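Memo to structure team: turn this sequence into structure tokens by end of day. - J.P.
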Amino acid sequence: MTSARVSVRIFLTVLGHLFTLNASLNKRRMVVKEQKMRVGLRMLSIATLFSVTVAFGVAHKRADIAQAPDETAVRDVLMKSAVSFEKNDLPMASQVWVNDESLTIFESGHANYGWADYRDHHLVPEMGEMKNTKYALSDMKIHLSGNTAWATLKYTISADVVDNGKPRHVDGAGLGTAVLEKRDGQWRIVHWHSSAPRRAPSTPAPPKP
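Reply from structure team:
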């Protein structure tokens, strides 16, 4: 009986160790499974973030590509306006300025409303007064929003003019803002605002003794 009891105790002890070992193995399996799930979730998050980033980049690039032809067209219109003035070419100018009453021009404190007013009382008289004209636009920054565009720029101008019957050479420079609209597939200037730097006040002559 004593030997049998010892055998039972040994059996129960071994059985207890086996249960403990099995529980430990199951716990390890759970830990490993949780770690794999965490790694999987991290990889999924990284993959999702990467996909979103790539999609956003592709969409942004496509938008830039879609706007590129319009930006080029707007730049060409502005440059063509400068060439038309430089060459005193009114037919060319009429191709880049909108030819209706929606046109507004603000230049050096003077305003013109409508194409006819600008053409007859500003553009044509200036073209007639200036010879050997050099007119250039630079540092253009163009922005697009649908069928509307606006640009900021710098300009320089030089020409020979007749002032009170005497010829003289003039040079100037300043800043400009242009607003354009896409009408019937063509970009046209609908508003122009330019200004030159203020002249330094002249030094008064010293009083005579």
